[in-house]
Specification:
The protein is an alpha+beta fold. It has 2 domains: 139 residues, Aspartate Aminotransferase, domain 2; 84 residues, Aspartate Aminotransferase, domain 1 (Alpha-Beta Complex), CATH 3.90.1150.10. The protein is 41% helix and 18% strand. The strands form 3 sheets. It has a 5-stranded mixed sheet with strand order 1-7-6-5-2, with helices on both faces. A hairpin with a 4-residue loop joins strand 3 and strand 4. Helix 5 packs across helix 7. The radius of gyration is 19 Å and the shape is globular.
């Protein structure tokens, strides 16, 4: 049991939370539990849209706290290391893990979600074997976040210099509209998704990079864009 306690404790600390749980509930079911406690809940993903942009979690959290309503960060596409939503001021961060869901709470989450800790304590927890599998999955998500972010940084820099591209939106590029927000919101990279505007028709395209070698991804883009160069 002490090993499990240490595991939950390290996850909570990484997210800036007072406590973390891993109930055997899917993301949708866990979100429904929170909404039942307070329908005014706002769910926020850190990276959204096309052109891709980074939401200002700290500013959204300040607004939510001033209005005494819950702010929940969806970290499912990022993992534990990519965005410490609770440390930025959110009441809850959720990370989907198939039929389970990581839940991390701020110290004052009960103020806007009364009874949540008691509910979480009463939910089925994973066995030690399943907990180990979930922790391994979280580690894989963190590694993928770093590698995909590194690839996206290369791809964004390449696209910014391409004659067929009018402009590029990527939070990791200095000068991007989201750069300053992303720099204080995201950790260990700026995410896998890059948006670019076609110089010919003005349309926006979006690529979500993989953990594959960045050069291979750039070469495929070159083949796609070269007829328009």
């Amino acid at each position: 049991m002490s090993g499990c306690t240490q595991t939950y404790g390290s996850i909570a600390r990484a997210l800036g939370a007072s406590k973390a749980w891993l109930p055997e509930r899917c993301f949708a079911a866990m979100l429904a539990e929170l909404q039942a406690l307070n329908p005014a809940l706002e769910l926020v993903e850190p990276l959204v849209g096309n052109p891709v942009a980074c939401r200002d979690i700290r500013a959204l959290a300040a607004e939510a706290r001033a209005e005494v309503r819950p702010l929940v960060v969806d970290g499912s596409a990022i993992g534990v290391e990519g965005c410490a939503g609770v440390r930025l001021g959110a009441h809850v961060e959720l990370i989907a893990l198939g039929d389970a869901c990581l839940v991390a709470l701020s110290a004052d989450a009960e103020r806007v979600l009364p009874g949540l800790r008691e509910r979480l304590d009463g939910m089925d927890a994973p066995s030690e074997e399943r907990l180990a599998a979930h922790v391994e999955r979280l580690a894989q998500m963190d590694e993928a976040w770093r590698r995909r972010s590194d690839a996206a940084q290369v791809v964004a820099s390449y696209l910014r210099c391409h004659p067929s591209v009018r402009q590029v939106a990527y939070p990791g590029l200095k000068g991007d509209a989201s750069f300053e927000v992303a720099a204080r919101t995201l950790q260990h990279g700026f995410g896998p998704c890059v948006s670019w505007q076609d110089a010919r028709d003005g349309g926006w395209h979006k690529l979500c990079c993989t953990a594959e070698d960045a050069r291979s991804q750039v070469m495929r883009l070159e083949e796609e864009l070269s007829p328009r160069a």
